[in-house]
């Protein structure tokens, strides 16, 4: 079913499922405004008014800027670059061209770079200037309180104050529960802090205010499901995620939630079957596809099918890492190779490829979670110089550096040197705090696998001393 939407709606109102399209069509059927039949894209001068009608007015006189803002937001939520629109980067350029002083245009473009965690205002002068420019524009314009809170949240996040940034986004959602940008940014922020309960509840609080015909409604299912599974409500999480997939089969985040559920419930065969069956739907979501392939590879590792896991690394993860250089892809590549090596698999020169991507970020220190994965790459590639530079920075998570971040890094380095007893001594006291570094349960599980592996290696070494015959097993 193809519906060319009337121009009374912004881009995110172009709903993807058949049911949602029908609902949107009924909303617009009596509109007197023209339809862009050649592209299906909005061309009405009333795009600005549509945002106001949604209760989310944007402080700009440019309808084109509103459309491009909407295009960026939609692609962000869908984890997909729409190349017909020039992708997210193309739309960012377009929104700035349409209105260089559009505050929310600056908020979303600069905010996306910040939540990507691939750059720090301490080292990146361009990014620091972008944050400063956004704050300055907000200070001289008569913008709404909601927009002003967005600027505050973005600035706080840029300084590494994730908790206060999330507080600001949550304050927006109290008055504007359908502000998808505030919801998505807070979702990412809570994830980086491993604030699992808040991640779940932030979505649960706004869900009653959303209706099925509203733009991007179905994507809330995957977001809520992720919060549920991270707080160990696995059955409910799977149910909600599949509701999202029923509405939008190519929702990569809902598919990702189902993959998590199967991983955490040790349903390896179900997970393999699900990933194979749905690959055609989520593989086009280029921002998240690499991560979903990572989940797929984990199932193979758990079955001992290491060549299959390496095949996914070579054909998908490595390729996408080189193309994007994103921190999510860096984390996936590093942790997959690290887990394979813990299983005794020779990954050959693959570490060198990952290190080429991670080395420029060694001094960023945006999150401890990233730093630990950079350390994996430097240890794997035997690049000791890089390993020594991975010391904590000043952001929120690095306030925990002395008691958590540094000991974890030291434990990994001792393990790499074969000093298993020292590594266990460092890591064992942290076993209940590991989640504080951020990331999902599945992503930080490597630390527990590492501790088990170290204890096994230590036991085996001691046993061989007592009984040399064991050396031959």
From TrEMBL:
The record's CDD domains line, in alphabetical order, gives: StaR_like
Q: Does the keyword Signal apply?
A: yes
Indicate the secretion signal residues: 1-24
Note whether Signal occurs among the keywords. Answer: yes
Alphabetized InterPro entries for the sequence = TPR-like_helical_dom_sf, TTC38
Question: Which keywords are on file for this protein?
Answer: Repeat, Signal, TPR repeat
Please report which protein family the annotation says this sequence is part of: Belongs to the TTC38 family.
PANTHER family in the cross-refs: TETRATRICOPEPTIDE REPEAT PROTEIN 38 (PTHR16263)
What protein am I looking at? Tetratricopeptide repeat protein 38
């Amino acid at each position: 079913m193809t519906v060319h939407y009337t121009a009374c709606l912004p881009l995110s109102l172009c709903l993807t499922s058949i049911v949602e399209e029908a609902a949107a069509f009924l909303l617009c059927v009596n509109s007197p405004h023209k339809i862009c039949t050649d592209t299906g894209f909005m061309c009405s001068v009333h795009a600005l008014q549509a945002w106001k009608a949604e209760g989310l007015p944007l402080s700009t006189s440019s309808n084109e800027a509103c459309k491009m803002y909407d295009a960026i937001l939609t692609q962000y939520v869908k984890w997909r670059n729409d190349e017909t629109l020039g992708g997210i980067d193309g739309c960012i350029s377009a929104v700035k061209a349409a209105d260089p002083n559009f505050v929310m245009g600056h908020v979303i473009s600069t905010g996306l770079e910040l939540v990507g965690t691939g750059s720090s205002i301490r080292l990146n002068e361009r990014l620091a200037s972008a944050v400063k420019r956004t704050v300055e524009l907000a200070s001289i314009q008569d913008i709404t309180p909601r927009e002003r809170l967005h600027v505050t949240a973005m600035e706080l996040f840029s300084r590494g104050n994730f908790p206060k940034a999330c507080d600001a986004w949550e304050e927006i959602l109290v008055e504007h529960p359908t502000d998808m940008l505030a919801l998505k940014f807070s979702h990412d922020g809570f994830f980086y802090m491993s604030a699992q309960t808040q991640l779940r509840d932030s979505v649960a609080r706004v869900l009653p205010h959303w209706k099925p015909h509203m733009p991007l409604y179905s994507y809330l299912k995957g977001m809520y499901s992720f919060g549920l599974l991270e707080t160990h409500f696995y059955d409910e999480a799977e149910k909600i995620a599949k509701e999202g997939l029923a509405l939008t089969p190519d929702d990569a985040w809902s598919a990702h939630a189902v993959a998590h559920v199967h991983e955490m419930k040790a349903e390896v065969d179900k997970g393999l079957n699900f990933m194979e069956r749905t690959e055609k739907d989520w593989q086009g979501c280029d921002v998240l596809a690499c991560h979903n392939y990572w989940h797929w590879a984990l199932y193979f590792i758990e079955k001992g099918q290491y060549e299959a896991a390496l095949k996914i690394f070579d054909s998908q993860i490595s390729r996408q890492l080189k193309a994007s250089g994103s921190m999510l892809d860096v984390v996936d590549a590093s942790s997959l190779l690290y887990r394979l090596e813990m299983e005794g698999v020779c990954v050959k020169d693959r570490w060198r490829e990952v290190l080429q991507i991670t080395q420029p970020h060694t001094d960023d220190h945006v999150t401890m979670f990233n730093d630990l994965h950079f350390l994996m790459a430097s240890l794997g590639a035997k690049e000791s110089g890089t390993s020594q530079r991975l010391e904590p920075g000043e952001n929120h998570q690095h306030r925990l550096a002395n008691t958590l971040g540094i000991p974890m890094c030291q434990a990994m380095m001792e393990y790499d040197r074969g000093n298993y007893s020292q590594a266990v001594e460092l890591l064992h006291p942290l076993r209940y705090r590991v989640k504080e570094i951020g990331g999902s349960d599945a992503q930080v599980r490597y630390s527990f696998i590492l501790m088990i592996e170290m204890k096994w290696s230590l036991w085996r070494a001691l046993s061989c001393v007592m009984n040399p015959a064991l050396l031959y097993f």
